[in-house]
Each structure stands twice: as structure tokens, then as C-alpha cells.
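About this split. The held-out portion is used to measure sequence recovery: a designer receives only the C-alpha cells and must propose an amino acid at every position. Recovery is the fraction of positions where the proposal matches the reference. Here is one held-out target exactly as it appears in the evaluation file.
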């Protein structure tokens, strides 16, 4: 795991993703193939999501994926992420209320596209 995912906001985002994928996988009764209790497809998606988090240009200031102006997931994993969120989101409220609350607070944050931020930080000619 990337050291950037071991602290702060990114760690919480990663933990939220792990919990949601777990809820989705167990709820759909996928055949468990890995030690983490996830089927091979869900574990593959979780590995993909981890790589995307590691490479996020926002770093610790990352918004939730739904509010992000950069869509870094390919179409198929993005659709799977939507399905996972749709299924696991309502179930998160009872099982993990703190993660749910912090996720909603993160959704409320506004962010600029990294190119706009970089353009604004450039010294004038």
C-alpha cells in the first residue's frame, strides 16, 4: 500500500471504499475466494480503486469521487463503483455511521480542477 493512503483523508477514503465493497460483496453472496472475504471480482475492483487513490492528483485534498472534476476510473469500473455505492450507501448508515458522516461531510467540500489551481498559482508575466 502506498504511504499516502496510510494517513488522514486518503486513509479514510480508502477505508470507506473497503467497507462498501465488503458490504456489496457479502450482500450479493459472491463466492468468497480471498482471505479478505471478498470474491475475486470485488478484490480486483478494490485493487483498481487503491491504484486510482494512490495516483489521485488531489492527494490529501481529494474530494469524493462523485464530486471530483477528474474522472479517473475507466467506464466499466466506474459503473461497478456506482452500483457498489448505490447498494452499500444506505447500509453504511447503520453499520458504519462515522464513516458515513465523514463521507457526507467530504461530499460538501468544493474543489477546483488541478489545472485551474496550477494556473492561479503561476506568477504573472
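Reference sequence for scoring:
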Amino acid at each position: 500500500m502506498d504511504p499516502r493512503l496510510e494517513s488522514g483523508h486518503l486513509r479514510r477514503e480508502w477505508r470507506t471504499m473497503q467497507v462498501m465493497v465488503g458490504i456489496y460483496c457479502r450482500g450479493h453472496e459472491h463466492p468468497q475466494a480471498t482471505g479478505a472475504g471478498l470474491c475475486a471480482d470485488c478484490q480486483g475492483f478494490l485493487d483498481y480503486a487503491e491504484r486510482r487513490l494512490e495516483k489521485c492528483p488531489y492527494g490529501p485534498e481529494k474530494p469524493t469521487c462523485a464530486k471530483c472534476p477528474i474522472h479517473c476510473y475507466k467506464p466499466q469500473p466506474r459503473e461497478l463503483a456506482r452500483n457498489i455505492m448505490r447498494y452499500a450507501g444506505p447500509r453504511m448508515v447503520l453499520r458504519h455511521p462515522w464513516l458515513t458522516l465523514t463521507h457526507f461531510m467530504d461530499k460538501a467540500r468544493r474543489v477546483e480542477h488541478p489545472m485551474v489551481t496550477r494556473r492561479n498559482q503561476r506568477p504573472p508575466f
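Annotator remark: The chain is about 60% helix and 0% strand.
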